[in-house]
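User: Quick sanity check before I run a bigger batch. Here is a single chain. Can you write out its predicted 3D structure?
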Amino acid sequence: MAEPALKAEESRAPPSGRVIPSLAALVTPERLAALKEFCVELTDLSGLSPSQIVIGHGGGLVVVEQGVDGYDQIILTLAVERPGTAVIVISDQLPGHMVRALMKIEASDIVPAAASISEIIEAAHQLRETQTVQGGGATSKCWAFRGAVGGAGVSTLAIESAFSLARKVGPGKVCLVDLNVADGMTTSFLEAIPKLDLDALAAAPERLDPRLLAAWCWEHADGVSLIAAPRNPDADALASEAAVLRLLDVACGVFEYVIVDMPRHMMPWTKSVLAAVDEAIIISELTVPSLHAAADMCRETDVLRGDQSKAKLVLNRMFPKKRFRAEFAVDKAEQAIDRKIHTTVASDWDAARTAVNLGKPIADVKPKSQLVADVARMIDELVPAEMAEAAEKPKQRKRSK
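Assistant: Done. Predicted structure follows.
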């Protein structure tokens, strides 16, 4: 009975106003294909680990189908790690321990295996409304910045991106996480206090909750929160995959945007983070060795991310004409590495040096710097349209007054 109903739904256009903006699903291929007609952004969760699903889609809207490999682990993990996630389970007879797990999730529903796609979408809309009432309507975005070579300016771009984003969406919504736990520089650049207790996090990652996270956050006057640990040459050994994923998971539950400053060298958690974040941004310079390293890192990251958005390559420290030495232009660089360059960021050494000496973002020191404008353009391209519109509405109301 379910098969004809499913085919009928596939052939019908989605009703006006009933399209889901974002949905993550672990269902059969046939049902996944049918759901695409009703979703602006549909993510196939097959092939992702529960930890990757939690960090990438926890707090959002998830549909799982009983009988599909891994469905039970997703429910159990979300119940413990992200109970604020809205979960729909397609099942005729769910085991008792799965029902108990669903009871721990704040917004959940069970639909029968014979349910039509429109019935599933209707259940999704109802859960989204429940999330909005409970204050969980917005889905967080997590972006990871990683350098293809040493000294590419990753920390500077991560900092400037966080502050540019805060100016766009408002204070208190952006968190910068420095995962260079051994030798991170963000606290020095901003004259911040490193408050992350890495020993406590590593000893019991499951104990981290929003209240404890708040104690580990340092907030800048411009409205950006920073999570960073004191510099410690032995800290890399403490940064386990469980600890880092839990840290990012809770941060994504508290803040609308989380920007991650990642080390270039491989860590136990590097692949999991790159596979789970909404955007993986590779930073390089316009030199032949840097471009080759960046192209390799982008390809490796694309493999990890599967069907998700491809890694974005950003060229930093560009000179006015975006060329260097022997008239080596950006379009030639793209041809050489067979890769599109997402954007370029101008070099402004004087402004950057003054900013770090004063412990401020570059925009506070030299707001008309081309570097600041380039970062703002990059942020505009990365922010999803619906989130940008939501951030713009309060500003429009203020102007109207």
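The mean pLDDT is 86.

User: Great, the batch can go ahead then.
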